[in-house]
Amino acid sequence: MRKISAVLFIAAAACGSESSKPDGPPAPDAAPDAAPDAFVRIPDFSCMGNAAPTDAPAQVTITGGGLASQGLFATTDIMVTLPMTIEAVPVADAKIAGFRTGVPAQQGTDQSDAMGDWTFMMAGVTAIDGYLAAAKDGHRDYRFYPPSPIAMDTTVPPILLLNEQTFGLIVSVSQKDQDAANGTVGLAVLDCANLPIAGATISVKQGATEYADDAHVYSLDQFQDGLYFIFNVPPGVTTVTATYNGMALRAHDIAVLAATTSTTAVRPGY
């Protein structure tokens, strides 16, 4: 089961642009017998306090991004067959649509091709504060909420349009409850370089009710720092954030829907 979770959350770590920024220098107080290539990376908080983007080109192109090095497609499913063969496969003929928050009508749409690729344009002028929605029969509905408003042509992380059997297997591995009437949140905690932050405390809240607790959270820290599934969250507006060493990362709202996986990331700032 370890490989299943590791493959699935490679994509979650890409919420935001990919970065080739190297890890920080070795910690000065590292033990004398530490391996020479042992590093302690200090998270990048340089974007904290930045103003939100407000302007955008007249038209913004949004493209699905695969992770070729990990075998993930722009629209991807995970197939599991006995004896535990795990394979990422493209999802063709899925409907992908872009929305602005608070505007019911879709602002752009495409259908994934045989390799799972898709692209569409949305009207810009002002930065796009919204989300992507993906759906196909037999697969769990999916939403992606970018951690910041989109203000330029953007390639988004792979859409994990999981078949119901695979999603059920993940729930079983997590040992959490997941009711059909509730939704699931996929959350990545990233720094300003879009690299995962280890040791953060997450919050997934509806009003005064906190769902980031032992009954709901499945942490992927054994595979990759800063990645979480939060299961069995009731439908509704949900505020996600995190704290790290006393610093509060930027909170933002997403929508949780029944039988839908809503994914996003929290970062120090825009």
Enumerate how many helices there are, as a single number: 2
Number of self-contained structural domains: 1
**Oligomeric form:** single chain
Helix content: under 10%
Q: Into which percentage range does the β-strand content fall?
A: 35-45%
From N to C, what is the helix and strand string? Answer: HEEEEEEEEEEHEEEEEEEEE
Query: How far do the termini sit from each other?
Result: 35 Å
Mean pLDDT: 87
Number of strands: 19
Q: Which stretches of 5+ consecutive residues score pLDDT under 50?
A: 1-7, 9-32
**Gyration radius, rounded:** 18 Å
Structural class: mainly beta
Gross morphology is: globular
Strand order across the largest sheet? 5-4-7-8-19-11-15-14
The largest β sheet comes out as: 8 strands, mixed
Explain how this protein is built:
This protein has 270 residues and is mostly beta strands. The protein has one domain. It has two helices and 19 strands. It has helices spanning 2-12, 164-174; strands spanning 59-64, 75-81, 85-90, 95-100, 108-111, 119-123, 130-135, 141-145, 154-156, 159-160, 183-189, 201-206, 209-210, 217-219, 227-233, 236-244, 247-248, 252-256, 260-266. The strands form four sheets. An eight-stranded mixed beta sheet has the order 5-4-7-8-19-11-15-14, with no helix packed on it. Strands 12, 13, 16, 17 and 18 form a five-stranded antiparallel beta sheet that branches. The chain starts with a helix and ends with a strand.
